[in-house]
Amino acid sequence: MRLWSLHPAVLDRAALVSCWREALLAQAVLGGGTRGYTRHPQLERFRACADPVGAIGHFLGSVQSEATARGYRFDASRITRPDAAHPEIPVTDGQLAFELTHLRRKVAERAPAWLDGLPVDTAPAAPSFVVVPGPIAGWERP
């Protein structure tokens, strides 16, 4: 499961689509709708929120908005809490740098044309996150 901390605008098509699907799975897990993936480390940051289902709903909303801007049709009715407040989930600048490097490696293989438009050193965080200084997240598997 990869719930990108990077802004959805920097994700290539494959990363955006997979992020949408995996965030829908995360929504089901956080809402108690499935027994699988309940201990997935990427869910820790959503569980730490006062309203985990609202936090993933906000996250899904930003992914859906980017998809719509690109002409894709991600079904917004699948978001349980589309009107959730901004959760302000902390993400470290080290985590964003790690994810950008990871994304650049993947894009170089599957969508080289997208690579030219990607930032090299720093990228913005997804709207659900607030950037703080620090290393790669403890839940990450580098």
Tag the structure with descriptive keywords:
5 helices, 6% strand, 142 residues, mainly alpha, two-stranded parallel ribbon
Q: What does it look like?
A:
The protein is mostly helical and 142 residues long. The chain has one domain (8-132). Helix content is 44%, strand content 6%. It is built from 5 helices and 2 strands. It has a two-stranded parallel ribbon with strand order 1-2. Helix 1 (13-30) packs antiparallel against helix 3 (52-69). The protein starts with 12 loop residues before the first helix and ends in a 10-residue tail after the last strand. The model has no long low-confidence stretch (mean pLDDT 95).
Order of helices and strands: HHHEHHE
Measured by DSSP, the beta-strand proportion falls in: 5-15%
Q: Helix content range of the residues, please?
A: 40-55%
End-to-end separation: 14 Å
**Overall outline:** globular
Main β-sheet: number of strands, strand sense, barrel status? 2 strands, parallel
* Helical run tally: 5
The count of β-strands is 2
Poorly predicted segments: none
> Order of strands in the sheet with the most strands?
1-2
The protein's oligomeric status is: single chain
Sheet/helix structural class? mainly alpha
Radius of gyration: 14 Å
Number of domains: 1
- Rounded average pLDDT: 95
